[in-house]
Every structure is written in C-alpha cells, then in structure tokens.
Amino acid sequence: MGSASASSLPTSAGAGENLVLILDFGSQYTHLITRRVRQLGVLSLCVSGTAPLSSLAGLRPRAVVLSGGPHSVHAPGAPSFPEGFLDFTADAGAHVLGVCYGMQLLVQSLGGAVEAGERQEYGDMEVEVTTRSSALYGEGEVGKRQTVWMSHGDEVVRLPEGFKVVSRSVQGAIAAIEHQEKRYYGLQYHPEVTHSPQGIETLRRFLFDVCGIKADWKMQDVLDEEIKTIQSMVRSDEHVICALSGGVDSTVAATLVHNAIGDRLHCVFVDNGLLRYKEKERVMSTFDSDLHLPVTCIDASEQFLSQLKGVKDPEMKRKIIGKEFIAVFDEFAQMLEQKIGKRPEYLVQGTLYPDVIESCPPPGSGRTHSHTIKSHHNVGGLPEDMKLKLIEPLKLLFKDEVRKLGSILNVPESFLKRHPFPGPGLAVRVLGDVTEGNALEVLRQVDEIFVQAIKDAGLYDTIWQAFAVFLPVQTVGVQGDQRTHSHAVTLRAITSEDGMTADWYYFERQFLVDVVKKICNNVRGVNRVCQDITSKPPATVEWE
C-alpha cells in the first residue's frame, strides 16, 4: 500500500487537537487503521513512514500509529521512521502505538531485540492478557483470552528498558507491550481487521482512555473547513474550472466548490469517447434538472481515441488520457478567458484518498514517487507542465465519507448511490487497444444489460461496483446452428466499504443464467460470458 505525502497535506489537517497520524510501512491493512479511527469519530491521516521529519512540520498529532509491513527489521533497506521522529512525538506529547512491524521497529529503535521466531504466527491466534492492570486492556483482565489476527515471522525477544509485557500468544510470543510513562505501546497483532473481533475495542481504549482524544471529527466540520480553505485560496476575482464526470466524487466536489465561490465556478463535462451507454445524455439531463449546475459539454471523443489508437499498455493509456483531459481543460480555459475577460487559474477534481494512496509507492520500495498499483488519471496521470492549479477538496476522504458530505450538500440520493466509474472510462475495461474493431460499442451494450439486470433485481445498492470487461480474445461458439468465432466478455461485481479492499458478489445461479442469455442473444459478436470472482487483493477492482 502507498500513502499520501505528508508535504501534500493541508495545514488545517494538523491544526486540531485530536489528530491521529498513521505512519505507513507497507502493510495491506494500513488503510484499515485509518478507517477504523475515523469510524470512531477521530480524524486520522496516513503518511509515508519514511517521510522526512521536515514534512511533518505543523502537524501536532495526539497519537501516532506505526503500521505493519511486509519487511523484517533486519532486512537491508527496511523502512524506518526518520531520525528524530521519537523526539518529535515526545515534544508533541503524542502516544505511539506500534502494530506488528511497527511494534518491532519501535522495540529495535529503543534498544530492544527482535529475532526470527522459532514458530511463525499467521492467521487466527489466541492471545492471553498477562497482567492485572494495563492501559491497552484495562483492569482485571488477567488470564482472559481473545482471538486476534497475526501475521509475523520475527518476534520481540527482549524489551527495551521500562517496557512490560501485557499479553502473549498461546505459543508464548509477546503480543502486546507498554511503557506508560514514555507513552509507548505495541501490538504484535492487527487490531484493525475483522479477524480480531475485539480489536476495535482495543483501538477505542487506546484513543479515548489512554490518549484522551475526543471523538469530534464530523462531516459538517469537514465541509465548513473546506469551504474556508477554498475561499482563502481563490481570490475574489479568480475563476475556477471543474471537471465533471457524472460520478459521485466530481459531483460532490463541484457542489462544494459552488457553495464556496458561486458563479465563478465553470463546470465542464468531457465526452472522451470512453463513456458508458448513453452516459452523456443521462448525465447532462441530471446536471440540469437535479443539480442546477451550469455545465458545458465538450465532445472530444475523436481527440482522445486518435491518441489511443494502437496503444495497449494500461499505464500508457492512463497517461495519455490524463494528458488529453488537461489539454481539453486548457482549451476550455482559453474559451472562458475570451468570454469573461479573465483566464481561470484553478481546476477542481474529485480526487479521493484511495486515489492518492494507490498512486504513491510503498515504503521500502526505494522510489519516491511511482504508480505502484496504478496511476489515477487525476493523480499520477497528470502532466508536469499543467498550467492550471489543482483544487482537490475530497482528497483526504474515502468514498463513503464523500457520500455523507454529499448528503449534507443536498446532492440527490440517486447521484450519491451511483457506482464508481474510473476516470479513464472504458479504456481500462477494454483490454488492449480500445479503438480496435467495435470493442467499445460491444462493451457498452454488455455493460448496460448487466447493470440494468442488477437494478431490476433490486441489487444495485447492495453492490459497490458492477461492470463488464471486454477481453482481447475470440472464442469458438455455436449460435443459430452455426459455428461462430466471436468475442468473450467478463462480468465483475464487488462489495466493499471504500474500494481499498473488496470481495466478489455472489449472484444466484438463475440471475447469471438470465443475464448471459440476454447478452448472447442481444449483443452481436459475443458468444462467451465469464464472471470475475477475484477479491482485492490479490486483484484490483478494475482490470487495468
């Protein structure tokens, strides 16, 4: 997992008295810690565990969580917090909680010892509280057991001075430690995952009882703060462009910015030739009738598709699309300059926290910026010479938080419940060259049949995201008593809380039978339909 650059965080992020800072050392679960803390009503921010100390200037965390990670503290190049970091936390009066690798890193940094365990611990494991009184477990819990999720090969074998063991695994490994005077704590297991049923209670005790944090983080406060930030950033004579896609993120971002600066916001919807079935007509109608936003529609489909012709590499497709979007926005800015006599300075985008996280490198990778998982067209896909300055009011929020914000802004529920749609559009759902043959048209028809069937079955709101994928292969079939050599497509539907992890949705057999029959009977050129039953991880949500 990647993490946001600390230097990119708004100064207001560290201004509160109840900030929890998550240092990411590469665990696949780090984002879950961020979410669990927020679900408890506390603002949490995830930054790279190897970020320079200078990038944390201005942040005054009440608590710091050192995440897990796939490394051994003994491995060459293993990630570590910057020199002086523990002094920084001490000066801030912050409590430090190390989780898994984070605990081992804390122990080693303070003079303790970590060694390869004689018996590695992975998966469900029981731990037993070993002391009558502890900060992490409370009073009178000695001897009590709870099931937790372990994932470690190394283990702590000697504690630094002043620490005490407060729980052990049934195999004898140290599971939790404390040094209350120094405000240091450690858990060898992952309290943030559902496989640790009492883990959320441990986090709750740490935040509220140990750290004394108040649950005062609310969406209304986020809205008020973002409006103030935008108003202070954009001068009274400056204008702003907003890229609308018709999805939840850009719609909420546009509505928020419109609340902040009014008619100086100019929205543009770009038909890039990569939209879903009748998407332009449906979205423009909704903008006008439900949101009352002034939106200019630009048909740039030929421009995008001509640049994508022959391109098969998914990263290259994303980069091209990001570049062409900015070119369109620059042209739109010039057109507005002629109309209103002033060139817009800013571009609003609905970038979310998962976009930022997935577009940054994992700690220990040796890279300072990369598209480790995949670059998002509005993060890693933007050209360096972009003329417009960015406004990203949602970049510290997860999808469900954006929906809550949209509800406060009175964005219609029908918009807020829309499934996510990737910025590069169908380009990442047609594997290979999107301009080859009639791939886009076939995909649009298949996708429309699949999603409409989900709506008809009353399943749309239960599913996080559903879509079809066009595969660059042809298969042999029999249709109308004749041999066919036609296209194969895949259907994907997932459930998720935030898009960072996901599981595939289990359809009833008859639903799939009916959908496949409808696709093969109504979409010319398709004779095989597959279903993607891969979770995330190991797969991503989109195929490219």
Helix count equals 14
Strand order of the largest sheet: 2-1-3-4-11-10-9-5-8
Q: What is the mean pLDDT? A: 87
Main β-sheet: number of strands, strand sense, barrel status?
9 strands, mixed
Structural class by helix and strand composition: alpha/beta
Anisotropy-based shape: globular
Task: Report the β-strand fraction as a percent range.
Answer: 15-25%
What is this entry, summarized?
The two termini are 17 Å apart.
Structure description:
This protein is globular. By secondary structure, it is α/β, with parallel strands linked by helices. It starts with 19 loop residues before the first strand and ends in a 12-residue tail after the last strand. Mean pLDDT is 87; it is low at 1-15 and 364-381. Helices cover 31% and strands 24% of the residues. It contains 14 helices and 20 strands. The strands form four sheets. It has a nine-stranded mixed β-sheet, with helices on both faces. Strands 14-13-12-15-16 form a five-stranded parallel β-sheet, with helices on both faces. The longest helix has 27 residues, at 314-340. It has helices spanning 30-39, 85-92, 101-109, 199-210, 219-233, 248-261, 279-291, 301-308, 314-340, 353-358, 399-408, 413-416, 439-456, 509-522, and strands spanning 20-24, 44-48, 63-66, 95-99, 113-129, 133-134, 138-139, 145-158, 164-169, 174-179, 184-187, 240-244, 265-271, 295-299, 346-348, 389-391, 465-479, 482-495, 503-504, 526-532.
